[in-house]
From TrEMBL:
Residues 397-416 are annotated as: Disordered. This is Sugar ABC transporter substrate-binding protein. The keyword DNA-binding does not apply. It comes from the Bacteria. One of its GO terms (biological process) is transmembrane transport. One of its GO terms (cellular component) is cell envelope. CDD domains: PBP1_ABC_sugar_binding-like (cd06324). Coiled coil: none annotated. GO terms for molecular function: carbohydrate binding. Its main location: other.
Amino acid sequence: MTLSFPSYFVACPHGRPRCLFTSAILLLGVILAQPSWAMHVVFVSPGKLDEPFWRDADEGLQHAAASLGIELELLHAERDHLAQLSLLRDVAERPVEQRPDYLLVTADKQVLPGQLELAEGAGIPIFTAYNGVQPKERDLLGYPRQRFQYWLGSLVPDAEEAGFLSARALIKEAQARWPGTEDDVLELVAISGDRGTDSSQRRTRGMVHAVSRFPRVRLRQNVYGDWQQELARYQTPILLDRYPHTRLIWTGSDLMAFGASDGVRASGRVPGQDVLLSTINMTERATRALLNGELHVMVGGHHLAAAWALVVLYDYHNGVDFAESDGLEMSKSMFALFDQEMAQDYLGYLAAGHPEVDYCRFSKVCNPALKGYDFSIGNWLSAARVATLRSTARGSALGDDPNGVHDAGNVAEQRQ
């Protein structure tokens, strides 16, 4: 017998034993019996399997799925927007009994119209996260549950808020570092994501809005790094040569921030001293860079948008329709400006082995008294602290023997 496995058998980040244990259980279920899941969701990720932001997004999805008893299938387009369509087409063409209950997509790179057509044709409910409908697409797509009846709705982080918060904090840092009058100009250059993604455009608008509030600051140029570290590394020395008095570099993502940091060094300057940098994304490397001064500003939290979408779909699947309280197209504040304490908390969670956060606490079905969804990163960090404390206490109770049993994954491995 030949068995084929979806990507959730191989997509467990960080090589955690818990993921190995979960995969073993799933494999046993395939061999011995049909798994009895409450619902089955396929997520089509635009990112790469090893890309830090999307790796963190995958982990959040896996934790949410485990908490809520959801069968989760992760598919990665590897930054190929056409693959986002082909992957979804493959799912839509499966035999009816093998199709998921829901599709989760990101509305990335203007592929949403094609994805909605495929889902509608296959009769699979589809939900969008991360990006909203662009104005030029609205006439074609309309609104959820209208022309496309299987399009349930969307959940979008307030990306304009992220751009604004990060730029404002960066400018305030610079004004404290280099005080002066309105005549003492602070020059800023920006490296945005791309021209075709809603979240990128909104982050940039937020940045421009923040700059407009500070008379001393001049935005000299905004370029597009296409979310790539290498491209930002190439662009930065050119920008610094063109605008030699630049003190501030605003970036739309962590990888572009690291590319910009490399470019600053290549130009003979020191990041955090001669030039201050900001970023959006709370990856582990970015968090450490914030603490060591390579980055001066970090805003994050939106990597969990897909995990939050699973919570919304879980509630919908169990009879609580988000449209009644939050509308069909939800925009939620998911970002926070990280300070030293928040950064240390997050690194503590990572050091504890990424313990599984309980997403049932965010669900209206699990908690009928909830009146609205709180998808803020502060709310998630509170849950992560609980998970960290439980993990630490469990580890202490089991002893510090490196060969000892520390979680269910190790139990499974020792029994083999």
